[in-house]
Automatic annotation (TrEMBL):
Transmembrane segments: none annotated. SUPFAM superfamilies: PLP-dependent transferases (SSF53383). Belongs to the class-III pyridoxal-phosphate-dependent aminotransferase family. InterPro entries: Aminotrans_3, PyrdxlP-dep_Trfase, PyrdxlP-dep_Trfase_major, PyrdxlP-dep_Trfase_small. This is Aminotransferase class III. Keywords: Pyridoxal phosphate. GO terms for molecular function: pyridoxal phosphate binding; transaminase activity.
Amino acid sequence: MRYVFNSTGYEVYDTYIVRGENCYLYDEQGNKIIDFEAGVWSTVLGHSHPHINGVIYEQLQNIMHLGYQYKSRIVEEAAEKILGITSLPNGKCIFLSSGSEAVELVVQMAKRIMAKPLLLTMSGSYLSALGSASKKADNEWFSFDLSLCKGCTFVETCNPDCEILKKIPFDDIGGFVFEPGNTSGMAKLPPKGLIKNIVKRIKGQEGIIIANEVTTGIGRTGRWFGFEHYDIVPDMVAIGKGIGNGYPVSVAVLSSNIAKRVYGTGFVYAQSHQNDALGSAVALEVIKVLQQEQLINKSALLGEQFKRKLIEISNVSHLIQEVRGVGMMLVAEFNDTLGTEHLSGIHRNLFQSGFLVGSSWRANLLRFYPALTIREIDINDMLTCLTSLLVKEETRLSSNDER
Protein backbone atom coordinates (compact mmCIF):
# COMPACT_ATOMS: atom_id res chain seq x y z
CA MET A 1 0.00 0.00 0.00
CA ARG A 2 1.44 3.34 -1.04
CA TYR A 3 0.07 5.62 1.68
CA VAL A 4 -1.29 3.19 4.28
CA PHE A 5 1.00 1.81 6.97
CA ASN A 6 0.52 -1.95 7.36
CA SER A 7 1.05 -2.94 11.00
CA THR A 8 -1.00 -6.16 11.02
CA GLY A 9 1.73 -8.62 10.09
CA TYR A 10 -0.44 -9.99 7.28
CA GLU A 11 0.49 -9.94 3.60
CA VAL A 12 -1.70 -7.53 1.63
CA TYR A 13 -2.64 -8.84 -1.80
CA ASP A 14 -2.52 -6.50 -4.79
CA THR A 15 -6.31 -6.57 -5.09
CA TYR A 16 -8.65 -3.65 -4.48
CA ILE A 17 -12.04 -4.69 -3.08
CA VAL A 18 -14.85 -2.34 -4.10
CA ARG A 19 -18.01 -4.09 -2.95
CA GLY A 20 -19.29 -6.77 -0.60
CA GLU A 21 -22.56 -8.68 -0.50
CA ASN A 22 -23.27 -11.45 2.01
CA CYS A 23 -20.18 -13.74 1.84
CA TYR A 24 -18.97 -12.33 -1.46
CA LEU A 25 -16.35 -9.68 -2.17
CA TYR A 26 -15.87 -8.08 -5.58
CA ASP A 27 -12.69 -6.48 -6.91
CA GLU A 28 -12.30 -3.68 -9.45
CA GLN A 29 -12.44 -6.17 -12.33
CA GLY A 30 -15.71 -7.66 -11.07
CA ASN A 31 -14.12 -10.91 -9.87
CA LYS A 32 -16.02 -12.61 -7.03
CA ILE A 33 -14.19 -13.82 -3.92
CA ILE A 34 -15.93 -15.91 -1.25
CA ASP A 35 -14.93 -14.58 2.16
CA PHE A 36 -14.19 -17.31 4.73
CA GLU A 37 -12.81 -14.76 7.20
CA ALA A 38 -15.92 -12.54 7.54
CA GLY A 39 -13.69 -9.48 7.30
CA VAL A 40 -11.78 -9.78 10.55
CA TRP A 41 -14.18 -12.45 11.91
CA SER A 42 -16.79 -9.69 12.19
CA THR A 43 -19.51 -9.83 9.52
CA VAL A 44 -21.62 -12.58 11.08
CA LEU A 45 -24.56 -11.55 8.86
CA GLY A 46 -22.40 -11.13 5.78
CA HIS A 47 -21.25 -7.93 4.11
CA SER A 48 -23.72 -5.10 3.47
CA HIS A 49 -26.70 -6.81 5.09
CA PRO A 50 -29.78 -4.82 3.99
CA HIS A 51 -31.29 -4.69 7.49
CA ILE A 52 -28.08 -3.34 8.99
CA ASN A 53 -27.63 -0.84 6.16
CA GLY A 54 -31.23 0.27 6.64
CA VAL A 55 -30.84 0.81 10.39
CA ILE A 56 -27.64 2.79 9.84
CA TYR A 57 -29.35 5.04 7.30
CA GLU A 58 -32.40 5.52 9.54
CA GLN A 59 -30.34 6.31 12.64
CA LEU A 60 -28.19 8.77 10.68
CA GLN A 61 -31.34 10.76 9.92
CA ASN A 62 -31.91 11.17 13.67
CA ILE A 63 -28.68 11.23 15.66
CA MET A 64 -25.48 9.20 15.60
CA HIS A 65 -23.42 10.63 18.46
CA LEU A 66 -24.29 11.96 21.92
CA GLY A 67 -22.43 13.51 24.82
CA TYR A 68 -22.10 12.03 28.30
CA GLN A 69 -25.06 13.85 29.89
CA TYR A 70 -27.91 12.68 27.65
CA LYS A 71 -30.01 9.54 27.51
CA SER A 72 -31.00 7.63 24.36
CA ARG A 73 -33.84 5.12 24.12
CA ILE A 74 -32.06 3.14 21.39
CA VAL A 75 -29.02 2.71 23.68
CA GLU A 76 -31.26 1.54 26.54
CA GLU A 77 -33.10 -0.88 24.26
CA ALA A 78 -29.85 -2.35 22.91
CA ALA A 79 -28.44 -2.74 26.43
CA GLU A 80 -31.56 -4.55 27.63
CA LYS A 81 -31.38 -6.92 24.65
CA ILE A 82 -27.72 -7.71 25.30
CA LEU A 83 -28.32 -8.36 29.00
CA GLY A 84 -30.99 -10.84 27.93
CA ILE A 85 -28.75 -12.88 25.65
CA THR A 86 -25.86 -12.87 28.16
CA SER A 87 -28.13 -14.15 30.97
CA LEU A 88 -27.21 -11.13 33.11
CA PRO A 89 -30.62 -9.51 33.76
CA ASN A 90 -30.58 -6.21 35.69
CA GLY A 91 -26.91 -5.79 34.81
CA LYS A 92 -25.28 -2.87 33.01
CA CYS A 93 -23.74 -2.33 29.55
CA ILE A 94 -21.22 0.16 28.22
CA PHE A 95 -21.01 0.57 24.44
CA LEU A 96 -17.53 1.24 23.02
CA SER A 97 -15.78 1.05 19.64
CA SER A 98 -13.60 -2.08 19.63
CA GLY A 99 -13.23 -5.45 21.28
CA SER A 100 -9.85 -4.48 22.70
CA GLU A 101 -11.47 -1.53 24.49
CA ALA A 102 -14.19 -3.75 25.92
CA VAL A 103 -11.70 -6.29 27.27
CA GLU A 104 -9.42 -3.63 28.74
CA LEU A 105 -12.36 -1.87 30.40
CA VAL A 106 -13.71 -4.99 32.13
CA VAL A 107 -10.16 -5.83 33.23
CA GLN A 108 -9.72 -2.33 34.72
CA MET A 109 -13.05 -2.65 36.53
CA ALA A 110 -12.23 -6.11 37.86
CA LYS A 111 -8.91 -4.90 39.25
CA ARG A 112 -10.70 -2.15 41.17
CA ILE A 113 -12.78 -4.66 43.13
CA MET A 114 -10.58 -7.78 43.25
CA ALA A 115 -9.42 -8.89 46.68
CA LYS A 116 -6.34 -10.62 45.24
CA PRO A 117 -3.59 -9.31 42.94
CA LEU A 118 -3.54 -11.66 39.94
CA LEU A 119 -5.80 -12.35 36.97
CA LEU A 120 -5.69 -15.85 35.50
CA THR A 121 -5.84 -16.53 31.77
CA MET A 122 -4.98 -19.38 29.42
CA SER A 123 -1.70 -19.48 27.52
CA GLY A 124 -2.13 -18.28 23.95
CA SER A 125 -5.27 -16.27 24.67
CA TYR A 126 -5.35 -12.98 22.78
CA LEU A 127 -7.13 -10.50 25.01
CA SER A 128 -6.52 -6.98 23.74
CA ALA A 129 -4.29 -4.66 21.75
CA LEU A 130 -4.46 -2.16 24.62
CA GLY A 131 -3.26 -1.67 28.19
CA SER A 132 -2.80 -4.32 30.86
CA ALA A 133 -4.67 -6.99 28.88
CA SER A 134 -2.15 -6.67 26.04
CA LYS A 135 0.99 -6.70 28.21
CA LYS A 136 -0.04 -9.39 30.74
CA ALA A 137 2.76 -8.45 33.15
CA ASP A 138 3.86 -11.16 35.59
CA ASN A 139 2.90 -9.07 38.62
CA GLU A 140 -0.67 -8.74 37.31
CA TRP A 141 -1.35 -11.96 35.37
CA PHE A 142 -0.83 -15.70 35.62
CA SER A 143 -0.99 -17.63 32.33
CA PHE A 144 -1.90 -21.29 32.67
CA ASP A 145 -0.07 -23.45 30.13
CA LEU A 146 -2.79 -25.48 28.39
CA SER A 147 -0.19 -27.78 26.85
CA LEU A 148 0.27 -29.32 30.31
CA CYS A 149 -3.12 -30.99 29.82
CA LYS A 150 -2.21 -32.44 26.43
CA GLY A 151 -2.43 -36.20 26.40
CA CYS A 152 -4.35 -36.41 29.67
CA THR A 153 -6.85 -39.29 29.52
CA PHE A 154 -9.16 -37.47 31.96
CA VAL A 155 -9.01 -34.12 30.20
CA GLU A 156 -12.79 -33.63 29.93
CA THR A 157 -13.71 -34.84 33.43
CA CYS A 158 -10.60 -33.29 35.06
CA ASN A 159 -9.74 -34.22 38.64
CA PRO A 160 -9.89 -31.07 40.83
CA ASP A 161 -6.99 -32.50 42.85
CA CYS A 162 -4.79 -32.87 39.76
CA GLU A 163 -1.15 -31.90 40.32
CA ILE A 164 -1.23 -29.70 37.21
CA LEU A 165 -4.11 -27.64 38.61
CA LYS A 166 -2.07 -27.12 41.75
CA LYS A 167 0.41 -25.13 39.66
CA ILE A 168 -2.17 -22.30 39.57
CA PRO A 169 -1.57 -19.94 42.54
CA PHE A 170 -5.26 -19.72 43.49
CA ASP A 171 -4.43 -17.95 46.77
CA ASP A 172 -3.32 -14.97 44.67
CA ILE A 173 -5.96 -15.19 41.91
CA GLY A 174 -8.76 -12.60 42.06
CA GLY A 175 -10.30 -13.23 38.66
CA PHE A 176 -10.26 -15.38 35.53
CA VAL A 177 -10.33 -13.91 32.02
CA PHE A 178 -11.62 -16.74 29.86
CA GLU A 179 -11.48 -16.75 26.06
CA PRO A 180 -13.62 -19.75 25.02
CA GLY A 181 -11.53 -21.16 22.23
CA ASN A 182 -10.36 -18.66 19.63
CA THR A 183 -6.72 -18.44 20.83
CA SER A 184 -5.57 -15.88 18.25
CA GLY A 185 -7.39 -17.62 15.42
CA MET A 186 -6.13 -21.13 16.23
CA ALA A 187 -9.49 -22.48 17.52
CA LYS A 188 -8.01 -24.25 20.54
CA LEU A 189 -10.92 -25.03 22.86
CA PRO A 190 -9.93 -25.47 26.52
CA PRO A 191 -11.20 -28.73 28.09
CA LYS A 192 -14.61 -28.35 29.73
CA GLY A 193 -13.63 -30.17 32.91
CA LEU A 194 -10.60 -27.94 33.40
CA ILE A 195 -12.61 -24.74 32.96
CA LYS A 196 -15.38 -25.91 35.29
CA ASN A 197 -12.83 -26.72 38.00
CA ILE A 198 -11.11 -23.36 37.63
CA VAL A 199 -14.39 -21.43 37.67
CA LYS A 200 -15.67 -23.37 40.70
CA ARG A 201 -12.46 -22.70 42.62
CA ILE A 202 -12.37 -18.98 41.80
CA LYS A 203 -16.09 -18.43 42.45
CA GLY A 204 -15.67 -20.29 45.74
CA GLN A 205 -13.21 -17.65 46.90
CA GLU A 206 -15.39 -14.76 45.64
CA GLY A 207 -13.31 -14.15 42.53
CA ILE A 208 -14.58 -12.68 39.25
CA ILE A 209 -15.21 -14.60 36.03
CA ILE A 210 -14.74 -12.57 32.84
CA ALA A 211 -15.64 -13.97 29.41
CA ASN A 212 -13.75 -12.52 26.45
CA GLU A 213 -16.35 -13.11 23.73
CA VAL A 214 -14.98 -10.62 21.20
CA THR A 215 -14.43 -13.37 18.62
CA THR A 216 -16.40 -16.29 20.02
CA GLY A 217 -19.59 -14.36 20.76
CA ILE A 218 -22.68 -13.54 18.67
CA GLY A 219 -23.14 -17.01 17.19
CA ARG A 220 -19.60 -17.74 16.02
CA THR A 221 -19.45 -21.06 17.92
CA GLY A 222 -23.03 -22.15 17.25
CA ARG A 223 -24.28 -20.61 20.50
CA TRP A 224 -24.85 -16.98 21.41
CA PHE A 225 -21.60 -17.10 23.40
CA GLY A 226 -18.70 -19.48 23.72
CA PHE A 227 -19.08 -19.69 27.50
CA GLU A 228 -22.41 -21.49 26.99
CA HIS A 229 -20.48 -24.59 25.86
CA TYR A 230 -19.00 -24.71 29.37
CA ASP A 231 -22.27 -24.34 31.33
CA ILE A 232 -21.04 -21.26 33.17
CA VAL A 233 -22.42 -17.75 33.59
CA PRO A 234 -19.69 -15.09 33.86
CA ASP A 235 -19.77 -11.93 35.96
CA MET A 236 -18.51 -9.76 33.10
CA VAL A 237 -18.52 -10.19 29.32
CA ALA A 238 -16.58 -8.36 26.60
CA ILE A 239 -18.32 -8.39 23.21
CA GLY A 240 -17.03 -7.08 19.87
CA LYS A 241 -16.60 -7.99 16.19
CA GLY A 242 -19.90 -9.72 15.29
CA ILE A 243 -22.08 -7.40 17.39
CA GLY A 244 -21.44 -4.66 14.82
CA ASN A 245 -21.36 -6.87 11.69
CA GLY A 246 -18.36 -4.84 10.54
CA TYR A 247 -19.38 -1.54 12.14
CA PRO A 248 -16.99 -0.57 14.99
CA VAL A 249 -19.02 -1.17 18.14
CA SER A 250 -18.30 -3.28 21.21
CA VAL A 251 -19.89 -3.84 24.60
CA ALA A 252 -18.66 -4.32 28.16
CA VAL A 253 -21.35 -6.19 30.11
CA LEU A 254 -21.50 -6.34 33.93
CA SER A 255 -23.71 -8.33 36.26
CA SER A 256 -25.81 -6.26 38.65
CA ASN A 257 -23.58 -7.25 41.58
CA ILE A 258 -20.37 -6.31 39.78
CA ALA A 259 -21.88 -3.01 38.59
CA LYS A 260 -22.80 -2.04 42.17
CA ARG A 261 -19.34 -2.91 43.44
CA VAL A 262 -17.61 -0.94 40.68
CA TYR A 263 -19.87 2.07 41.25
CA GLY A 264 -18.92 1.91 44.91
CA THR A 265 -15.24 2.47 44.13
CA GLY A 266 -15.90 5.77 42.34
CA PHE A 267 -14.58 4.29 39.08
CA VAL A 268 -14.64 6.76 36.17
CA TYR A 269 -14.09 5.97 32.49
CA ALA A 270 -14.96 8.28 29.61
CA GLN A 271 -14.37 7.77 25.90
CA SER A 272 -15.52 9.93 22.99
CA HIS A 273 -17.77 7.33 21.36
CA GLN A 274 -19.07 5.73 24.53
CA ASN A 275 -22.75 4.75 24.28
CA ASP A 276 -23.18 6.23 20.80
CA ALA A 277 -26.68 5.90 19.39
CA LEU A 278 -25.52 4.67 15.97
CA GLY A 279 -23.40 1.79 17.27
CA SER A 280 -26.14 0.78 19.69
CA ALA A 281 -28.73 0.75 16.89
CA VAL A 282 -26.48 -1.53 14.82
CA ALA A 283 -25.90 -3.91 17.75
CA LEU A 284 -29.62 -4.14 18.44
CA GLU A 285 -30.43 -4.90 14.80
CA VAL A 286 -27.73 -7.58 14.56
CA ILE A 287 -29.33 -9.42 17.49
CA LYS A 288 -32.81 -9.05 16.00
CA VAL A 289 -31.73 -10.47 12.63
CA LEU A 290 -29.95 -13.41 14.25
CA GLN A 291 -33.10 -14.21 16.20
CA GLN A 292 -35.57 -13.67 13.36
CA GLU A 293 -33.61 -15.75 10.86
CA GLN A 294 -32.55 -18.38 13.46
CA LEU A 295 -29.02 -18.07 12.17
CA ILE A 296 -27.26 -19.34 15.25
CA ASN A 297 -28.96 -22.72 15.10
CA LYS A 298 -28.54 -22.87 11.32
CA SER A 299 -24.84 -22.06 11.55
CA ALA A 300 -24.33 -24.66 14.28
CA LEU A 301 -25.76 -27.36 12.03
CA LEU A 302 -23.88 -26.18 8.93
CA GLY A 303 -20.72 -25.82 11.02
CA GLU A 304 -21.00 -29.49 12.04
CA GLN A 305 -21.27 -30.49 8.37
CA PHE A 306 -18.34 -28.24 7.46
CA LYS A 307 -16.15 -29.77 10.17
CA ARG A 308 -17.15 -33.31 9.24
CA LYS A 309 -16.16 -32.70 5.61
CA LEU A 310 -12.82 -31.24 6.67
CA ILE A 311 -12.21 -34.35 8.78
CA GLU A 312 -13.09 -36.55 5.80
CA ILE A 313 -10.47 -34.71 3.74
CA SER A 314 -7.92 -35.13 6.55
CA ASN A 315 -8.62 -38.88 6.63
CA VAL A 316 -7.53 -39.07 2.99
CA SER A 317 -4.76 -36.48 2.99
CA HIS A 318 -1.75 -37.19 5.19
CA LEU A 319 -0.87 -33.48 5.06
CA ILE A 320 -3.57 -32.43 7.54
CA GLN A 321 -2.58 -33.14 11.12
CA GLU A 322 -5.76 -32.01 12.89
CA VAL A 323 -9.16 -30.44 12.27
CA ARG A 324 -10.64 -28.61 15.26
CA GLY A 325 -13.16 -25.97 16.26
CA VAL A 326 -16.88 -25.59 16.71
CA GLY A 327 -19.66 -23.84 14.80
CA MET A 328 -18.26 -21.44 12.22
CA MET A 329 -14.88 -21.31 13.96
CA LEU A 330 -12.79 -24.04 12.33
CA VAL A 331 -9.15 -24.66 11.45
CA ALA A 332 -7.15 -27.30 9.62
CA GLU A 333 -3.64 -27.65 11.04
CA PHE A 334 -1.04 -29.13 8.70
CA ASN A 335 1.93 -31.27 9.59
CA ASP A 336 5.53 -30.21 9.10
CA THR A 337 5.82 -32.22 5.87
CA LEU A 338 4.14 -29.42 3.96
CA GLY A 339 6.15 -26.47 5.27
CA THR A 340 5.29 -22.78 5.36
CA GLU A 341 6.28 -22.04 1.77
CA HIS A 342 3.96 -24.64 0.27
CA LEU A 343 1.09 -23.96 2.70
CA SER A 344 1.40 -20.31 1.71
CA GLY A 345 1.18 -21.44 -1.91
CA ILE A 346 -2.05 -23.35 -1.20
CA HIS A 347 -3.45 -20.26 0.52
CA ARG A 348 -2.57 -18.05 -2.43
CA ASN A 349 -3.97 -20.54 -4.96
CA LEU A 350 -7.23 -20.66 -3.00
CA PHE A 351 -7.40 -16.87 -3.19
CA GLN A 352 -6.67 -16.87 -6.91
CA SER A 353 -9.47 -19.42 -7.30
CA GLY A 354 -11.88 -17.08 -5.54
CA PHE A 355 -11.69 -18.28 -1.92
CA LEU A 356 -10.33 -16.06 0.85
CA VAL A 357 -9.48 -18.22 3.86
CA GLY A 358 -7.51 -17.34 6.97
CA SER A 359 -4.01 -18.51 7.77
CA SER A 360 -1.34 -18.68 10.43
CA TRP A 361 2.11 -19.65 9.21
CA ARG A 362 3.36 -19.76 12.81
CA ALA A 363 0.76 -22.41 13.65
CA ASN A 364 0.87 -24.05 10.19
CA LEU A 365 -2.88 -23.81 9.64
CA LEU A 366 -5.68 -22.58 7.42
CA ARG A 367 -8.66 -20.95 9.13
CA PHE A 368 -12.37 -20.88 8.29
CA TYR A 369 -14.42 -18.25 10.19
CA PRO A 370 -17.09 -17.29 7.60
CA ALA A 371 -20.34 -15.39 8.08
CA LEU A 372 -23.15 -17.42 9.61
CA THR A 373 -25.06 -16.81 6.38
CA ILE A 374 -22.64 -18.73 4.16
CA ARG A 375 -24.23 -21.23 1.78
CA GLU A 376 -23.40 -24.93 1.81
CA ILE A 377 -22.60 -24.84 -1.92
CA ASP A 378 -19.90 -22.21 -1.31
CA ILE A 379 -18.35 -24.34 1.42
CA ASN A 380 -18.40 -27.39 -0.86
CA ASP A 381 -16.81 -25.46 -3.75
CA MET A 382 -13.98 -24.27 -1.50
CA LEU A 383 -13.40 -27.79 -0.14
CA THR A 384 -13.29 -29.20 -3.67
CA CYS A 385 -10.63 -26.64 -4.57
CA LEU A 386 -8.67 -27.35 -1.37
CA THR A 387 -8.79 -31.11 -2.02
CA SER A 388 -7.42 -30.61 -5.53
CA LEU A 389 -4.56 -28.45 -4.23
CA LEU A 390 -3.69 -31.02 -1.56
CA VAL A 391 -3.58 -33.80 -4.15
CA LYS A 392 -1.11 -31.72 -6.19
CA GLU A 393 1.06 -31.18 -3.11
CA GLU A 394 1.03 -34.88 -2.28
CA THR A 395 2.03 -35.70 -5.86
CA ARG A 396 4.89 -33.20 -5.63
CA LEU A 397 6.10 -34.66 -2.33
CA SER A 398 5.85 -38.20 -3.69
CA SER A 399 7.91 -37.23 -6.75
CA ASN A 400 10.58 -35.70 -4.51
CA ASP A 401 10.76 -38.89 -2.45
CA GLU A 402 11.35 -40.98 -5.57
CA ARG A 403 14.34 -38.90 -6.67
